[in-house]
Known about the structure:
Layout: E1 4-8, H1 18-34, E2 38-43, E3 52-54, H2 59-68, E4 74-80, E5 87-92, H3 94-98, E6 100-104, E7 108-112, H4 113-125, H5 135-156, E8 165-170, H6 175-183, E9 189-194, H7 198-205, H8 210-216, H9 224-228, H10 232-244, E10 247-250, H11 253-262, E11 269-270, H12 284-306, E12 318-323, H13 333-350, E13 358-363, E14 368-371, H14 373-390, H15 403-409, H16 412-422, E15 437-439, H17 445-452, E16 463-468, H18 483-488, E17 492-494, H19 505-511, E18 515-519, H20 523-531, E19 540-543, H21 550-566, H22 569-583, H23 588-606, H24 617-621, H25 623-626
Parallel strand pairs: 1-2, 1-8, 2-5, 8-9, 9-10, 10-11, 12-13, 12-17, 13-16, 17-18, 18-19
Antiparallel strand pairs: 3-4, 4-5, 6-7, 14-15
Helix pairs in contact: 2-5, 4-5, 5-6, 6-10, 8-11, 12-14, 13-21, 15-16, 19-22
Amino acid sequence: MAEFLFEVSSEAARQIGGIYTVLQSKAPYMKKKYGANYCLVGFLDEKSKSDLVEKKPPAQMARAFAALSPLGIKFKYGLWAYGASVPVILVGAKEMGERRVEYFDGYKKLDKKANYLKFLLWKNFSIDSLMENSYDFTENVVWGFAVGMLLEELLKGKGFRGKKTVCHFHEWICAAALLYLKMNNVQAATVFTTHATVLGRSLSSTGRDVLAEASKAASPIAISEAYRLKIEGKHQLELQAALNADVFTTVSETVAAEVQYILGKKPDIITLNGLDFSGSGQSPKTMQRVASYVRSELLQFVESCFIPYYVQHYDNALLVFISGRYEFLNKGFDIYINALSQLNRCLASKAARNQRRIFAFIFAPSAVRGPKISIIKNYLLLDKINEFAAALPQAKGKTYHNAQSLLQELKGREKSDVANMMGGFVRDGPSPHINCFDLNYADDIIIKACISAGLTNKKEDAVKVLFYPTYLKPNDGLMNLSYYDIIAGMDVGVFPSRYEPFGYTPVEAGLKMNVAITSDTTGFGRFIKSKVPSLKKRGLKVISMAGKSSSDASRELAGELEALYFADEKKLASLKKDSLALVRLCDWKILGAHYFNAHRLALARKFAGKKHGLGNARNQTAQIRRQGMEKSGGKTHGT
């Protein structure tokens, strides 16, 4: 077992993607295993501001910070407020990258340090970034070098000297840090985890079926594909990290097949993604009570979107959602929309006299000006009507299908008051909107796809679609609830991704007692199929997409949703409970062992007599420390 563990990710205490959830949910188990000898290293910027509880750094860290600060590197130390209060060092290196340095590249050259660092990657690892002009590549190379320098400085200190230390790096973004340790022969075992390859994700976004290609390929993909997509620097950085780490891991069998094709290397261990279920110790009954409250809020919101246009029932609705980054093909938004279209046509004939409605949400953050003012006004007015009704003796204990059914129950002054309030509902156009926010651009692909599929929220439609194009949070200006609160009130979460290395969304949906539907082209979908022989009557569904057409996938998904539409209340409740039981297979109590195995293997390889280092790379990269520091009476290399 490692005596110290440093885990490095740009998403440590910085919520920008799914790795944040991996680290956050895993933190209690790392803390339990390594105690005070576990520390995260992350990216310092405004996005990390709310997660860090800043503290005075321990003496050894303070000395390392002081040694490196003159180079233009900034540090903050503290505890991760939302990650089991584990220690975190945040590193900012923008200033270092901007400083001017002089170095020899066939001739003396004065350039930005960022370019010098890229030159070192070329000289030592043949990473070609000459034409790589993307800001995030340069930014992360500079940050990676700064992190590597920090780790080297720490490990030279008395408290770490001679200790068995593991440094675990996540994604290509951290690759330069790992390569810095390699170049300088720093005595730490290294683990590199790829959650999704840069090239694989890019190819998939163009419509390529990377998994199908990988299953048929006799050799790795040509590097020319990375050049064609102008991501050669990121691809080669990721490749070199995989090749030079003591242990290389991926997060699922799906990514394992992908990396063999994209990077030409088989992973040593699969470190599956898990969740921390210890904090979700609520009983199913408690969860149902919470869900009931959130559901009432959701139904009021839905009613505020449609009430000015026509009368319909809301009480027994089926609430369905899809969520994820706005990657129309990768996340399967097209499959979801086409399945809803097929379902809508099917229910037009099968359920003509059924008042039950399906409200299908699309949560995909985009660029918005703000929420629809009409929806806000209608929501607030419904709030007043419901408060008024709750105080009426004749309305207590009754459930109403909608505001109109309440009106029918009232008489006299109360009826007149409610009717007057209902006269204040606001229309914003001839028909209900698909989007709940005003977008700051035209021709949105999701809205166009819904209209093309006939999902236009007509009165007779059994399926209504609501596009919520912003992050769900308590101050989003409309529903004002977090993502986890919102999905607690839902019935079904749908995630038909074409490209998903693992996929937390169905696990999170199951955790909140939703029926979860995913695909066999996701890491989680394949994992759950390997663990459960048959999912036919279970609360988790895995639709077949590998090697299938999009229309086949939409047809299967429509069938699953139709079955849930006609399921009675008892059956649906049973499926929800079963979904929660199945996602518990992803508990870190079970899956954390894969991480510990990776750390043990890295230590065995690093400290079993295997020599590391790259000739005179140490001398070359030692210049990084010297260059950029101002020397009194001498030449200045600062900004």
